[in-house]
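Researcher: Quick test of sequence recovery. C-alpha cells follow.
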C-alpha cells in the first residue's frame, strides 16, 4: 500500500516521464503531452482533496461493497469536475473535447450519477469502452488513490485475479528487479495499487501452459511487452523495470501504441484498457 505522500510524489514522476517520452517517441507525442496536462490537474486535485479531508473522515470502502460509499456527503467535488471538463474542452483531442463539453451541460444530479456509477464499478466492468468512461475514470483516479492509501488490504492470496484492496481488474503487469531476475506484479486499473503475481500464468483465465502464452516485444519500446493468452484471447501489457528502471508503468504504457496494433491484428483483446485507450 502506498502512503499518501508517496502517491503525491508519484504524480510528479508521471508528469516528468510523460514529458520525456513525448520528446522520445514522436508517434505518441500528442497522447503524452495531453496526459501531462491531465496529470497536472490530477496532482492539484489530489493535494486539494487531501487538504479538505477532515482527520475524522472514515475510510471509504474500495472493494465490492463500495456502492454508495462515494464521498459526496463529506466533500463537494462537483466544482472541480466543472474545472476538469473545461480543461478537457480546451486541451483534449477533438472527439474527447466535444464529449467533455456535452457532459458539462448536464445537471448536478446527472453529474453525480456519472461519477457514482464509475466509483461503484470502475476497474471491474469491461462492458464499457475506454472513452465512454474516460471522464469519470480520469477525474476520480486521484480520489481512488487517496482512499487506497488510507485503506488496509486483507492478506493477499498468491496470484489473485483481482486487486485484493478494491476488486479492480489488472491494468498492467510490472516486472520489478528481485535477486537475479524480476518479480511479477499486477497494477490495479482502479486504485493503482500492486499485488504479486505468478510469472507464467494468464491473469484472465488461469492458463499455465507456456506454449499458449506468447509474448511480443516491439522494437520501439523494448521494455514493454504483450503477454497474450491463446486460450482466452486476452492480453495484458507488462512494463519490465529490469530493462528500464526509469519507466513509470502507467505512463510508459500510454506510449506503447505499436503493441496495441500488433495485438488487435492478431485478435487479442486487452484485459483492461488504459486511460487513453492506446
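Model:
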Amino acid at each position: 500500500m502506498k502512503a499518501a505522500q508517496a502517491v503525491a510524489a508519484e504524480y510528479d514522476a508521471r508528469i516528468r516521464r510523460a514529458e520525456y517520452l513525448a520528446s522520445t517517441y514522436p508517434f505518441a507525442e500528442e497522447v503524452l503531452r495531453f496526459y501531462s496536462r491531465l496529470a497536472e490537474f490530477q496532482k492539484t486535485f489530489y493535494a486539494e482533496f487531501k487538504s479538505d479531508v477532515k482527520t475524522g473522515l472514515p475510510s471509504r470502502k474500495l472493494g465490492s461493497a463500495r456502492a454508495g460509499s462515494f464521498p459526496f456527503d463529506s466533500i463537494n467535488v462537483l466544482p472541480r469536475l466543472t474545472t476538469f471538463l473545461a480543461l478537457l474542452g480546451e486541451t483534449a483531442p477533438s472527439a474527447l473535447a466535444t464529449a467533455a463539453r456535452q457532459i458539462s451541460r448536464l445537471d448536478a444530479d446527472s453529474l453525480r450519477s456519472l461519477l457514482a456509477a464509475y466509483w461503484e464499478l470502475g476497474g471491474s466492468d469491461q462492458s464499457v469502452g475506454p472513452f465512454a468512461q474516460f471522464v469519470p475514470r480520469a477525474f476520480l483516479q486521484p480520489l481512488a488513490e487517496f482512499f487506497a492509501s488510507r485503506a488496509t488490504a486483507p492478506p493477499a492470496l498468491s496470484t489473485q485475479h483481482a486487486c485484493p484492496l478494491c476488486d479492480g481488474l489488472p491494468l498492467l503487469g510490472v516486472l520489478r528487479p528481485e535477486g537475479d531476475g524480476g518479480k511479477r506484479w499486477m497494477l490495479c486499473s482502479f486504485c493503482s495499487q500492486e499485488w504479486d503475481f505468478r510469472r507464467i500464468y494468464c491473469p484472465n483465465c488461469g492458463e499455465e501452459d507456456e506454449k499458449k502464452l506468447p509474448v511480443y516485444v516491439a522494437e520501439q519500446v523494448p521494455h514493454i511487452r504483450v503477454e497474450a493468452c491463446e486460450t482466452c484471447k486476452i492480453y495484458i501489457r507488462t512494463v519490465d523495470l529490469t530493462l528500464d528502471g526509469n519507466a513509470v508503468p502507467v505512463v510508459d504504457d500510454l506510449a506503447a501504441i505499436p503493441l496495441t496494433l500488433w495485438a488487435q491484428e492478431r485478435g487479442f483483446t486487452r484485459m483492461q484498457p488504459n486511460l487513453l485507450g492506446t
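The chain has two domains: 4-150, 170-270.
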